[in-house]
Amino acid sequence: MTFVKAHGAGNDFVLLPDPDDKLELTRDLVRALCRPHVGLGADGVIRIAPGREGSGADAFMDYRNGDGSVAEMCGNGVRCVAKYLVDRRLVDGTEVLVDTRGGVKRVRCILGDTGRVELATVGMGEPVPLKVDLALDVEGHGPVHVTTISMGNPHAVVVVDDIDDAPVAALGPLLQRDPEFPEGTNVEFLAVLGRDLVRGRIWERGVGETLASGTGVAALAAAAHLLGLTDRTVTVAMPGGDLLVEWGEDDLTVTGPAVEVAAGDIDGAWLAGVMRR
Amino acid sequence: MTFVKAHGAGNDFVLLPDPDDKLELTRDLVRALCRPHVGLGADGVIRIAPGREGSGADAFMDYRNGDGSVAEMCGNGVRCVAKYLVDRRLVDGTEVLVDTRGGVKRVRCILGDTGRVELATVGMGEPVPLKVDLALDVEGHGPVHVTTISMGNPHAVVVVDDIDDAPVAALGPLLQRDPEFPEGTNVEFLAVLGRDLVRGRIWERGVGETLASGTGVAALAAAAHLLGLTDRTVTVAMPGGDLLVEWGEDDLTVTGPAVEVAAGDIDGAWLAGVMRR
Questions:
Q1: Which of the residues B38, B83, B271 would you substitute to probe the A interface, choosing the one with the greatest number of A C-beta atoms within 10 Å?
Q2: B220 backbone dihedrals φ, ψ, rounded to 5°
Q3: What separation in angstroms does the CA of B246 have from each of A54, B6, B122, B257?
Q4: Is the pLDDT of residue A277 over 80?
Q5: Contact check, Cβ <8 Å, A260/B269
Q6: How far apart are CA A215 and CA A222, in angstroms?
Q7: Partner residue facing B41 (CB), from A41, A260, A269
């Protein structure tokens, strides 16, 4: 079984190329691959399969979270899939259609000096503003002002003065389970550095603080603009790297890095051990 | 640059084969490889170089900690190096002499059904008992009984009733900086399940809780025997796997798993990015 280890702004994946669409991703295999120390360690596994019939796509991104559950879409992952396909000339040119459980995504790749993909742009759909500058009474924190946005999944964005001191671990879990969000919410923190630059940190629902999340970065930039703090085009500096968000007429795109760290083969004996469990 | 990702009882390494002895392991490269998410993620990097002149060894284990610093010896790492050499028939037979900064280690490998190495035994040298059942007054914990042992490096071993509830994160850092240990100490916790079976957890000096440590497991088993709780041969069940410790006349050996997870190539563009920093 061949693999590629890749990341987008620190959100990392084990890519498993599966051109013949025959690889069975069991929950045990996904978990074992994602475990640090005794596996490869990653946030998720992406099986790169052929585009589903009628999708017109170049490939299907079969995304699994580290706990083995299925995910619809991952903005950072889809950039890595596009890089994989373009770098290996498995598609013509630098534009890739990636089929996901959340629909077909068009990814435009930008090549570096070496002729390989360094950045990629993906449309994340239109942000749906819900409540702008809503004051929530959070125990121990007093009134907390949040702007809530749907990117298909729920987000609550909080503006802070200093991103390094942002109460991510303290406020994140409290907001996540606030009665305002019956299904929970992702929580984003942002600090404004200018009309075109913010810094951000993300508390992912059910996960904790993460280095980056495509929908989180999109929601964060949309909230900053809705609050009148930034323009429609803004760079979001995240702990894992910078992402450029452009909120156009009918789509919001995120441009960010796609990095390949290593590629090779999963050990056969290790794999047999996982399958035997 | 080729690599192998391997672990021994959950203590994991990026192995870098360097048969021509020409690979320069910079601090930046080691740190970048060991970082999770944006690197490969590991506790350390091991360059497998030719045995140093006059050593008579099959290979030299050039071990670096995740922070880039040099380490003398690593019991879990040396088993992985032996597996690498035996599996690939780079030595004759199943016994390997591995040169380390802590001297030449003889490693005896045990093959599984597939003809590849599953377990390996390495001599860790003689434990030097220092103080048996010493009562230390630790703030907030009252008197804590420790048995101190040198395995070349310092260890303080604490016996507990329940290993799952052991105060590793609370007591580890307090004992590490206790005035009794001017240079700090590693701290091991053990719970006795029988004359030939204990469970263990390790607080590594300067690192925190780790899944396994060769010298830690050796010190832990030696302390259990010195306290009259176990025989000279004991299995130590660690969170990352089981290790068999045999304290003989003039050596203590540890037998444990050596597992290869994957092998391949580090991406050239990623490597160039690290080198440019």
A1: B38
A2: -60, -45
A3: 63, 24, 10, 15
A4: no
A5: yes
A6: 10
A7: A41
The total of other beta-carbon atoms located within 10 Å of residue A12's CB is 30
Do A119 and A110 touch, CB atoms closer than 8 A? yes
Name the DSSP class of A219.
Answer: H
Taking the C-alpha atoms of residue B93 and residue B111, their distance in angstroms, rounded to an integer, is 11
CA dihedral A189, A194, A195, A197 (to 10 degrees): -60
Q: Which of A37, A80, A114 to mutate to test the interface with B (most CBs of B within 10 A)?
A: A37
Q: Compute the distance between CA of residue B6 and CA of residue B19 in angstroms, rounded to an integer.
A: 18
Query: Distance between CA atoms of A165 and B6, rounded to whole angstroms?
Result: 37
Query: B271 vs chain A: nearest CA distance in angstroms?
Result: 8
Q: What is the pLDDT of residues B251-277, one digit of tens each?
A: 999 999 999 999 999 999 999 999 887
**pLDDT computed for residue A62 by the predictor:** 97
Q: Parallel, antiparallel, or unpaired: how do β-strands A59-65 and A44-49 relate? A: antiparallel
Q: Are A94 and A109 in contact (CB under 8 A)?
A: yes
Give the residue-averaged pLDDT of B243-249: 96
**Model pLDDT for residues B143-152, shown as the tens digit of each residue:** 999 999 999 8
C-alpha distance from A16 to closest chain B C-alpha (Å): 13
Q: Do A240 and B265 touch (CB under 8 A)?
A: no
Domains of chain B: 2-124+258-275 (3.10.310.10), 128-250 (3.10.310.10)
Give the ipTM of the model, two decimals please.
0.91
Subunit contact A7:B265, Cβ cutoff 8 A: no
